[in-house]
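pinging the channel bc i need a second pair of eyes. not urgent but kinda urgent?? the chain im working w is below, pasted from the shared doc
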Amino acid sequence: MSENQSTSSKPTSSSSSTSGSTSSSSQVSTRGTGALASEQGKTSIADTVVSKIAGIAAREISGVYDLGGGTARAVGALRERIPGSRTNLSQGVAVEVGETQAAVDLDIVADYGVAIADLATAIRRNVVDQVERMTGLEVTEVNITVHDVHLEGEDDNNGDQDKEQNTSRVQ
């Protein structure tokens, strides 16, 4: 991410909006406008915030079965079995956040039969829209890695049941 380029263009955008600063400062924007720094102070957004937003936005898309590679999903499945634990919404999401920009990497498992190129386009669109709208950061890229394809009726628990059946036949 090129923070120097974005910060050099920032004064241009803020100086053009100073004429209406009294009316716009009292309103909350629904679209990010680069107002993370102003005369009153600076707003910093943590990586975990962007990661959660991106994870939720990716899960909203039909055709995404799960996020994360094999190891991350196995750890997530164990975590969900612990009473009182919550789903890790940033599982399978890696982000790099600068002062005005963010880059997102997603690891997904797609449902079988879904056109992966169309799925990736929909995920990118939703992640960019949500992150930019909620944080005001410019999303420079969304990289997507498809780790697996999920077949309907295939569950991680079914593999455990098959192992138990094989074990019981042997005993």
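so Confidence is low (pLDDT under 50) at residues 1-32, 158-165. and The first strand starts at residue 37 and ends at 38. — does that match what u expected or am i reading it wrong
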